[in-house]
Amino acid sequence: MAFVEFKNVFVDFAIYNASGRSLKKHLIQATTGGQIGANTEGHVIVRALNDLSFSLKDGDRVALLGHNGAGKSTLLRLLSGVYTPTSGVAHISGEIGSLIDISLGIDPEATGRENIYLRGGLLGMTKKEINKHLDEIIEFSELGDFIDMPLRTYSTGMHLRLAFAVSTIVHPEILLMDEWLSVGDESFKHKAEARMSELVQATNILVIASHSRELVMNICNRAIWLEHGSIRMDGNPEDVCAIYFG
Questions:
Q1: What is the mean pLDDT of the chain?
Q2: Which residue range is the domain that position 13 belongs to?
Q3: Are residues 85 and 39 located together in one domain of the fold?
Q4: First to last CA, the chain
Q5: What CATH number is attached to the domain comprising 67?
Q6: Does residue 47 fall inside a structural domain?
Q7: Same domain, yes or no, for 20 and 66?
Q8: Is the pLDDT of residue 25 over 60?
């Protein structure tokens, strides 16, 4: 059983080299979408997430909606453990898998085979687990003999096929995504779509940031609309999308 419970969660980022000039404050606010303020020590801060309270349970397929800078990526990184709350309480139970950056940890000088172990290790897989899935990953990536060539010799498509094949081999209880993944040429995209669908069905909780109304309506059973780090609306996709997308 997986669950997420946030109670009055705030996330602030201190801008130590920022002055009090109004122009700099304006630029920071324009680029982050956050709220500008000052902490008790007088440092300029950007409030990325503001007083979030919600809970997620098994079966939830949650879309995060909002303009760029609304707090979607910050919330995903908070859920993945990259960030911790400045204040408030965040309870997360369940194995977490992140598809936010599938190329994280990939080394261009290492071979494709070596990169499977590098990326797999970052995903929390043991060497024994990677060995178990090694042939499957290589076959799915369709790299053939290139699997033992340095990644710098790969095309962009080959690089993405390998990263996708490794990153989607895990089946976490809580799956985090920043947009739906679709990689490769047309023939590989069909395989990728099928694997993504299987992965979503197998996970207990899905949280995906998206700008696609069609995807939200087809995949999700709940939508959270963020605006300037706060929850503006939380409900079923039909109601939230009708207002958000217009």
A1: 90
A2: 3-94+208-244
A3: yes
A4: 36
A5: 3.40.50.300
A6: yes
A7: yes
A8: no
CA dihedral 96, 108, 209, 66 (to 10 degrees): 140
Same domain, 35 and 60: yes
36-47: b or e for each residue (b if 16 or more CB lie within 10 Å)? beeeeeeebbbb
Report pTM: 0.85
Considering the domain architecture, whether residues 88 and 149 belong to the same structural domain is answered as no
Residue 103 in any domain: the answer is no
**Mean pLDDT for the stretch of residues 156-171:** 93
Within a domain: residue 223?
yes
Task: Look at residue 229 in the predicted model and tell me its pLDDT.
Answer: 96
Position 182 scores a pLDDT of 77
CA torsion through residues 179, 184, 185, 187, sign: negative
- 30: exposed, middle or buried (Cβ count in 10 Å: 0-12, 13-18, 19+): exposed
Is residue 105 domain-resident? no
Whether residues 188 and 224 share a domain: the answer is no
